[in-house]
User: Fold this.
Amino acid sequence: MAIERTLAIIKPDAVGRGLSGEILKRIHEAKFLIVAIKSVRLTKSEAEGFYAVHRERPFFKDLTEFMSSGKVVVMALEAEGAIARWREAMGATDPAKAAPGTIRNALGASIQNNCTHGSDAAETARFEIGYFFSGLELI
Assistant:
């Protein structure tokens, strides 16, 4: 399996509930390397740019308002098969449908307040990591 990078976000609901440390602990336990990390508060415009692929979806307005509602922690994670492994660690989008032991099952409150985001494919990961981190931050 190839070494990959994926973007992970600890969303405003999790940061606001003080869950960043628990999620970071789970990332370390799963043997991901955190290549880059920062805490930011997205503007509405920045959230819209990040989620531009969903602009025509009915949830776009609520999603971008939520993602700009408070601080987030963004990370570039690296590991063998990082994209699939991070998605597996997060669990299904709906915490009620997420597998036991996953982040969203254990810590998520709803489909929107599900604590984490992860890239869904290699091309998406490249865009998403580049959205938050410059080349120098990723060395």
Observations:
- The radius of gyration is 14 Å.
- Strands lie at 3-10, 33-40, 72-80, 116-118.
- The domain at 3-134 is CATH 3.30.70.141 (Alpha-Beta Plaits).
- The helical segments are 12-16, 20-29, 44-50, 60-67, 82-90, 103-107, 122-132.
